[in-house]
Specification:
- It holds the Pfam family Bac_globin.
- Belongs to the truncated hemoglobin family. Group I subfamily.
- The chain is mainly α.
- The chain is about 60% helix and about 0% strand.
- It contains eight helices and no strands.
- Helix 3 packs across helix 4 and helix 3 crosses helix 6.
Length: about 140
């Protein structure tokens, strides 16, 4: 029994160390300041409503699996804002390949996102931080 206990303890400790852990979320992260997952889901839901109702760009989403789009947008915002999520979707280039989106299309999407954030009362400084995370994606989306 005396030799079995240290071996068993070593196996258990190794198993615990190998178990993936959720990354710690910085309490000052944008994710936390936005309000965590519930707030991100609220923003995404409002954004999808605005995009769906926007005749200027909703055609780009007519063959889209909306529940999957929602899941991916939540993951993407959560991860980019410093939350515990991992984005599992395709690269932006891959996801938008063949769509030939223009700068105007991208700007309309951003307008809809801002309208959604205003609707759910995300403070302007947090909106700017969130938009700053996604602005650099423009070249990965436009012209693909």
């Amino acid at each position: 029994m005396k030799t079995l206990l240290p071996s068993l303890l070593a196996v258990l400790l190794t198993a615990c160390a190998a178990t993936p852990q959720k990354p710690a979320v910085d309490k000052n992260s944008l994710y936390q300041r936005l309000g965590g997952m519930p707030a991100i889901e609220t923003v995404v839901d409002a954004s999808i409503r605005h995009i769906h109702g926007d005749l200027r760009i909703n055609i780009f989403f007519e063959n889209t699996d909306i529940p999957d789009l929602r899941r991916l947008l939540v993951e993407q915002i959560c991860a980019a804002a410093g939350g515990p999520c991992t984005y599992t979707g395709r690269s932006m280039e891959e996801a938008h390949s063949g769509m030939n989106l223009t700068d105007k299309d991208f700007d309309i999407f951003v307008e809809d996102l801002i309208a959604a954030m205003n609707e759910v009362q995300v403070p302007a400084p947090l909106q700017q931080e969130l938009l700053a995370l996604f602005g650099p994606m423009r070249p990965q989306v436009v012209g693909q």
